[in-house]
Amino acid sequence: MTRQRPEPSQLLRLGLPILAIACAMLLLPVPDARVGTKLLYLSFGDLGPEPAVLALLAGRSLLVAGIMAWLMGPRARIGVLAVLAGIACHGPDLFGPANSDIARATGHLILMPLLLPLVLHLVLAALGLDSGRRTRVGLVSLYAAAATVAIVGAATYDPFLDAACIDCTWDNPLLVMSRYGLPRYRRLAEAAVVLVSGVAMGITAIYWLTGRHRIRSPRTVVAVAALGVALAGGIRGVLLVATPREDPRGMAWTGAWGLLLVSVLVLSVGFGWLAVASWRRAVQLREVVASLEAAPAPGAVGQALGRALDDPGLRIGYWLDDPGRYVDAQGAPMEPVTGRGMTVTPIERDGGRLATILHADRVDGQALAGVFGPAMLVAVDNDRLRAARLAQLEELRASRTRIVAVSDGERRRLERDLHDGAQQQLLSILFDLRLARLAAERSGDPDRVDRLVACERLAQDAVDELRRMAHGIHPAVLSRSGLIAALMSLADEAAIPIEVEAGAVGRVPEAVETAAYIAVWEALAGAIERGASSMSVGARLVGDTLSIEARDDGPPGTSNTPVRIADRVGAAGGQASSERLADGGTLLRVELPCV
Amino acid sequence: MIVAEDQILTREGIVRLLADAGVDVVAQAGDADELLSLVARERPDAVLVDIRMPPTHTDEGITAAGRIRAGFPAIGVVVLSQYVEPAWALQLIERNPEGVGYLLKERVVDAAGLVDALRRVIDGETVVDPTIVARLLGRKRKHDPLADLTDREREVLGLVAEGLSNRAIGARLVVTDRTVETHMTAIFSKLGLEESPDQHRRVLAVLTLLRA
Q: How far apart are the C-alpha atoms of A105 and B73, rounded to whole Å?
């Protein structure tokens, strides 16, 4: 899954279990399978070579899987449980050489009551169902009962008084109290522990298997094995109570043992698989965390996950409550939806929506969500807050641009209305006044002529004033002929000489032209205010950036002209700066992106 | 002649003023397309066209002037404008060096001046509104291409831009035609225009003024 080279500690973690397996195989005693030489049939393994091999495989594979989980992590406790269950499963075969029947029988006596509670605990832990308070109380009670049966039972079990076992003719070295009837009570108590464990395990397995879980997963294998163990436990429990004699060679007893051992073998496989999968996820998590420490840039979590899972299309959408949408690490809106080979997996924190991961279908979403421990969630939340800030910033910038665009549009509309409406009407009045004056001149009425001439002058003044106003609101030449023509026109009207040095600017977007024109207009007003006697304006296009330089010979003042220019230029996504020149003048520099 | 103006009120005022001055307005148009078909049909001596007409209400008048001048070189075209904008006067004259004029709308009330301007564009000269000429001459440039001209020569150049003939300039300045010719020679020389034919030189001088 990951293409990165494993670190030495990872190699160590893989190597240790292999070493442990080798040790377990070499050091632990092998059951003796000499059929017919046994004085005492204590276990399934005593029945022949094939049962002996099965017993060996079952117990030892659980031991091996436990050691693997223990050493590889991340939940070493489950590994310890599995090792204990493996020891209990080996039961009689663990203690002493094969011919030491007394030791084997004593081990059997102590360990058998503990086996099913241990397996139950292991199954619950493997399925992630062991954290509930009631479950923990139940488990502790069961352990207590099993331990009581093991210890008290061992101290009171006199094989010679056990009516259910004719072969049981050995001396129990742990015997403290020998009394008729006690072995039967012990048998019944063990049956109770086995039955309770079996029923609990059966319920657990059915609960898991009927839930919505992936079929091809180690936990499903564990659940199936648990069902088998539960069934075997149930049969054994019923046999312990119902049959008068314990007979390892009988059909029912043999079947219960066989089913138990096969189920334990399957359980070991599922558990080992789970341990390897957990370990691999843990390695991925470590890679993610390691890369986070190295580069906590925006979007680092998503990139690290994408690398760790070899899924370059992986994206994290961060949930923003306020606009109620997902954004990427840069704050740009995104819509994570399942489809076209991609799947979304939500990430929650304290029950609240935090983010969602858009990843390839082949990546296991549940496993991915499981990677997000507390540290990762904090990192994701940090990224989310940063994305939220970026989104707000972008929103503010866009809103400022929109406001300015609306106001620019209004100015253009106002200018057109003034020209097409008010000015046309004034011109009509002017024309009518002239016609009336001509008529008055012809009819020889000098008083009327004088009044009409005065009216004409007023109307002409009004036309001039309106024209100046309209030009100030928005110069029509800017929209039609562009920035340079408008700057020339501005220079024509200016109270001080302005030199316009224009490069090949051509036409740039209207918002940019307007911002540039207003910046120069403000700069001119500021220069006159500061007592400048001349000004020069340079405009040129460098790549996609319109660069304007306005120099004047006035000293820098304290007016807020630069602030107004910076506001206007900023709304168009540009930058403005002002500096004092060596010769005492002032230089305004404006850069506007033309995209 | 033909008048093209999309605002009916203004158009009627213009037509009445022209009629009052004895000009025969043979047709009226509301937009550029109508104007062009009327021109083709009526073949007027001159056309008076509003700079702002449908559809964009910006400089359709300048475009129409160019098409009329290209199709009918004998017809003089005066563009009426609300804008004191040398850039547009320059645009008009650069595209059509002869037989065009750029006047502000209120100039219409001066019937004698308007008729005079129409005559000159019919004669193939160029006419620029006196208000714009005044603005051009008032320009404050650091590197002024007209810096070598004397005040009197600038005045004469301005009158040339307004479309006055040498004789009219002499009358306006109360000097002899010869004096005006001397001034013209000096202006052409200082602007570096000695090598061109006379009519062409006058337009080039006006363009120099407009570009300054």
A: 129
